[in-house]
UniProtKB/TrEMBL annotation:
Lineage, broadest ranks: Bacteria, Bacillati, Bacillota, Bacilli, Bacillales
Protein's UniProt keywords contain Acyltransferase: no
Pfam family, one: CTP_transf_1
Record family assignment: Belongs to the CDS family.
InterPro entries the record matches: PC_trans (IPR000374)
UniProt keywords, alphabetically: Cell membrane, Lipid biosynthesis, Lipid metabolism, Membrane, Nucleotidyltransferase, Phospholipid biosynthesis, Phospholipid metabolism, Transferase, Transmembrane, Transmembrane helix
Protein name in UniProt: Phosphatidate cytidylyltransferase
Length: 262
C-alpha cells in the first residue's frame, strides 16, 4: 500500500499540472501514455512493438489520436483518418501473405482492435480537455471515487462475488458502493463545478459512467486473464502498467461525448 501511495502521489504531481496547462505538452503526454498502453496490449499477444505489425499499429494509433483542431493537414493531402486507417488494415492483411501466415489473421485482428481500444479512449481524452477542463477532473474523480468506493465497501460488507471468473475479488456490494460514491462526487461537481447539464441528467449519466468504468476494468481483467498476465506492465510500481491505470477511463471518456454531456 505504501508503494502504491508513493507512486500515485508522484504520478499525480506530474500528470495533473500538464493536464491543467493543456496545449502541446498535454497532447505529447497523451501520445506517450497511449503509446505505452498500446505496447502493453501488444505484449500480451507477444507482438513486439519494434516489428512491422508493432510499428504499423503505433502509426495508426498516432493518426487516430490527432486532435480535430490539428487535423487540417489531412485535408491538404486529401485523406481522412478513416481512409488512412483502412489503408493500414490492408497493409496488415498484406503482411500476413508476405510472412506466409506466420503473422496470422487473428494477430491482425488483435493489433487493430488494440489500436482502436487504446486510441478511441485517449482521443476522447484529448477532445474532453480541449472542450472543458472541468469534465476531465469530473471523469477522473468519479472513477477514483468508483474504484475507492468499490474497494472499501466491498471489503467492509462484500459477500457476493460480482464476476469471479474474471475478477475474483470484486463483489456486488462493492459494485453498487462504487456507483454511490461516484454519485456523491457528481453532486459536488454539479454544485461547485462548471457543469453544463442539469443535476438530474448529470446524476443519471454518472451512474452509467460509473457502471461502464467498472466494465472497462473488467474488460482489461478479462484480457489479462485470457493471456495469463498479472499486470499489463510495471511502469507504475504498485499499480502495474498504463492500461491498468486507464482501463476504466478508456470507456468513460468516449461515453462523456456519446452522452452529450459536453
Amino acid at each position: 500500500m505504501k508503494q502504491r501511495i508513493i507512486t500515485a502521489v508522484i504520478a499525480a504531481a506530474i500528470f495533473l499540472p500538464i493536464v491543467i496547462f493543456g496545449g502541446w505538452p498535454f497532447i505529447a503526454m497523451v501520445y506517450l501514455i497511449a503509446s505505452v498502453a498500446l505496447y502493453e496490449a501488444l505484449k500480451m499477444k507477444q507482438i513486439k512493438l519494434f516489428s512491422v505489425p508493432g510499428i504499423l499499429s503505433l502509426l495508426l494509433l498516432w493518426i487516430f489520436l490527432i486532435p480535430d483542431q490539428y487535423s487540417g493537414f489531412l485535408n491538404q493531402i486529401d485523406y481522412t483518418k478513416l481512409e488512412l486507417f483502412f489503408l493500414g488494415v490492408l497493409l496488415f492483411l498484406t503482411y500476413t501473405v508476405i510472412t506466409k501466415n506466420r503473422f496470422t489473421f487473428e494477430e491482425v485482428a488483435f493489433s487493430i482492435m488494440s489500436t482502436l481500444y487504446v486510441g478511441l479512449g485517449f482521443y476522447f481524452f484529448i477532445e474532453t480537455r480541449e472542450a472543458n477542463l472541468t469534465y476531465v477532473f469530473y471523469s477522473l474523480f468519479i472513477i477514483w471515487a468508483t474504484d475507492s468506493g468499490a474497494y472499501f465497501i466491498g471489503r467492509a460488507i462484500g459477500k457476493h462475488k460480482l464476476w469471479p471468473e474474471i475478477s475474483p475479488n470484486k463483489t456486488t456490494e462493492g459494485f453498487f458502493g462504487g456507483i454511490v460514491s461516484a454519485l456523491i462526487v457528481a453532486v459536488l461537481f454539479s454544485v461547485f463545478g462548471d457543469m453544463k447539464v442539469p443535476t438530474m441528467i448529470l446524476l443519471i449519466a454518472t451512474a452509467f459512467l460509473s457502471v461502464f468504468g467498472q466494465v472497462g476494468d473488467l474488460v482489461e481483467s478479462a484480457l489479462k486473464r485470457h493471456y495469463n498476465v498479472k499486470d499489463s506492465g510495471n511502469i507504475l510500481p504498485g499499480h502495474g502498467g498504463m492500461l491498468d491505470r486507464f482501463d476504466s477511463l478508456l470507456f468513460v471518456w468516449p461515453l462523456i461525448h456519446l452522452f452529450h454531456l459536453l
